[in-house]
Each structure stands twice: as C-alpha cells, then as structure tokens.
Amino acid sequence: MERVVESGQDLPSIVVAPPGPRSRELAARMAEVESPAFDARRQARAARSGEDQAPIVYARGRGANVFDADGNRYVDLTAGFGALLLGHAPNEASEAARVAAGDLVIALGDVYSTEIKLRACEAIRDLFPEPGARVMLGLSGADAVTCALKTALLATGKPGVIAFEGSYHGLSYGPLAALGFAPAFREPFVPHLGVPVTFAPYPESAAGLDASIEAVRAALASGSVGAILVEPILGRGGCVVPPAGFLPELRSIADAAGALLVVDEIWTGMGRTGSMLASSPVVPDVLCLGKGLGGGLPISACVGRRAVMEAWGGHGGTRIHTGTHFGSPPACAAALATIEALRARDLPARAREVGDVWRSELQAACGEAAVVRGAGLMVGVALPSSIDPLAVARELLARGFIVLTGGARGDALTLSPPLTIEPSLLRAFTDALAETIRKRRPG
Ligand SMILES: Cc1ncc(COP(=O)(O)O)c(C=O)c1O
C-alpha cells in the first residue's frame, strides 16, 4: 500500500462532519467519567450559542496538524494552549524527552537530581535578563506563579499582591486569588483564598495608562504589598497589548515601594510574541515561565534575581517548596531542547515576522468587523457583540481549523499556533475566518 507522506503543514481534510461518530462516542464516555463541570460548560455554551458544542477527540498530532478520532485533519491554531512552540511531535523536544525517558523517568527531586536537570536549569537561568538568577522548577504555570508569590512573601515579608483585571495566572489557590479574568472562577473558593489581592485595571490603550498606574500607586500606599503580578500581554484576557510605558512604570513604582515585580510570561514567553521575553528590556524581580518551556511537556519555572531568591536559602535549611515530579528528566530534556531549537532556528524572530504579516492580513480580511490584537504569534481577534465567537469557532472547526475563544467578556478568538507553522496555512485560516464573519454579520 502506498504510504501517504504527512508534512505536518497540510491544509484541512474533513472526511466526516466534526464531531464524527467515534469522537461523539468517546466524548460521551468521557462525560461519564470526568468532572461534570466540563460537560456542563459545553451544555451552557450550546444553550448560549444555539450551536452543538460536542467536542472532537484528538487522536494524534504532527507539526501544525491535528487528526481526530474520525480521521479528520485540522490546522491547529491553538498548539496545546500555546505550549507546542515547535508543533506536534516529532520535533527536538519530543525526541529529547523520548531519549531521556529511556534512561530515567524520574530521579529524586531536590534530594538526588540529574545532569539533565542541571543543564535545563542553567539554560533557563540564562533566559533571565540579568546574570546570577536562581531557578525553581514546577510542572504547570500555576506552580510557577505559586512559587513566585511565595518568593515575594519570603523576600519582602509583605503579604499583599496587586494583580490586574482580566488577568489569568492559573487555578491553584495562590494564582486563583490573583485571577482577574472571569471572577466566577474565584468566587466559590473565596473562603479558602487567603492572599490579600487588590485588582487594578489593565490598560488596554494609552488612554487607560494613568488610571491603571494610579490604582497601583493607591494600593502600594498601604505599605503591605510585596508583589505586583502582571502579564506583559493579557493572554486569556484576549491578547491585549498594553501601552509601551506600562511595564517600565510598574518597574519604577515597585522599586519605590519595596515590592517585587513578578512578570508572568507563561503565555508570552519563549519566543511566542517575537522575542524570548515580551517584558524585555524591563528586568523583573521574578519571572514565571511555563506552557512552551517544555515544548508540550509539563514543566514550568519561577526564575528570580539572585538577591530576591536568597530568601529561600535564608529559611533555615528546610526544603519548603518541592514536588515529586518537579525536574522530571524527560521534561527537563524537552525544555533544554526547546530552548536550543528556538535559538538554532531563530524562531522568536520568525514568530515576529510571520505574526506581523498574519495580523495585518487578518485585520485587512476582517475589516471593521473585528479588531486584531497581539504580538508575534499570540493573536486575539475581538468580535462585535452581534457575532458570537462560539458559533464562529464552531464553524471554523467544521472547516478544519481549531481555535479557542477568550477575552474577559468572551468576545474574542485567541490564536497561538506553533511558531513553525507555514504562512500558507495561516492565509487559508484568514480566508476561512473572513468568510465565516461575513456570513454572520447582520444586515
Ligand atoms: C499567563 C498565564 N499564566 C498562568 C497560566 C496557568 O498555566 P497552567 O494552566 O499551566 O497552570 C496560564 C494558562 O493559560 C496563563 O496564560
């Protein structure tokens, strides 16, 4: 039989209207076994959008393509929530993880570690814009933010945190306390959330900068704030790029108040927005990395200035922050390989160039019906209230393009394809989106 060569950069091929029968069967079984919250959300979305929201079930991926359980091929504009910077396997990260797993799946964390963990930590340290930084590993983005919040409390002795409306930092308790995106995520758990957080508005344009900074200053005036926690670009909040002065201003007022500037680059970092770090040239006190760090494998890092991280050593010799799987050899190998591949293939620059062209093509194709935001290959398409993003996402799925919805008001599509995606696939998506929007515009 002739073997079909898959490039991983192929246009969609929809052989069964998604979700096909196999996806439906597997999803129904899944709904019986996993948290009822997931199915309940689908049902609520179906009621809201008037569209079936039954999911497809992934079978495998390759490059920028995903194949579902019914044999449909999609172009993946989400890349595992932005994690698959190098695309779906095989790539440098997946191969390095496979080889590392053949040698050692788990070491002994902070007791007995491995050379691969050492090399990954050195490479992660070198991503920090100042020499001598210290690294603490985790598995998820929420782990990195939790570690950063603990660092701020240890280093400053001040429990207060300033976070921003619309921001998302993960859902374990520390990050959840600081979640400004969809307060409904936080509300049921408020009795468990001890971190005192003040929310300031995130400036969506130059016009909002003064009000945002004023709110931060007012909160700092209490003297009890140890951390300003900020995304350089709001991710789940809809890929909102703040005005250029925002981070430098936060840097200087944090310094004046003796608070740490904690920059959450879990989505923006590792080349996604066109440079290794979106916060550059601002130097954070603590940097959170995750998502793309492992090229799809679960690893995250809290990286801090040397002087700030000294607080952990000053704690009297107890290891008060660790986890069974932190620093797993396959994940460390994947992180090291991802960092090397990003550099060797100059992928941050590619993300900038390809993303700049794509965003302007998207804006031109959608016209006034949409506002295209973002940087590099982190892209938000804000839709007017007359067009339901869930319905648009559904039609795009039927056409073979996988996208997510986002935005603080749920009014946007969020797009984070692999940094390796071919522009021809992005152009095909642009045409499909423009046509979908045109069909759904009233009048
Ligand atoms: C900016 C940001 N921080 C933190 C997180 C949480 O990461 P995780 O889901 O891996 O815990 C996310 C996830 O979307 C994120 O976008």
> What do we call the CATH homologous superfamily of the largest domain?
Type I PLP-dependent aspartate aminotransferase-like (Major domain)
Q: Work out the helicity level.
A: 25-40%
Number of DSSP strand runs: 15
Q: Please provide the ordered H/E string of secondary-structure elements.
A: HHEEEHHHEHEHEHEHEEEHHHEEHEEEH
| Hetero ligands | pyridoxal-5'-phosphate
Number of helices: 14
| CATH class term of the largest domain | Alpha Beta
Major sheet summary line: 7 strands, mixed
The fraction of residues in strands falls at 5-15%
CATH fold topology of the largest domain: Aspartate Aminotransferase, domain 2
- Total discrete domains: 2
Major sheet strand order: 4-10-9-8-7-5-6
Average pLDDT number: 96
The CATH architecture assignment of the largest domain turns out to be 3-Layer(aba) Sandwich
Radius of gyration from the alpha-carbon trace, in angstroms: 22 Å
**Which structural class should the secondary elements be placed in?**
alpha/beta
Uncertain regions spanning at least 5 consecutive residues: none
Tertiary shape = globular
Distance between the termini: 52 Å
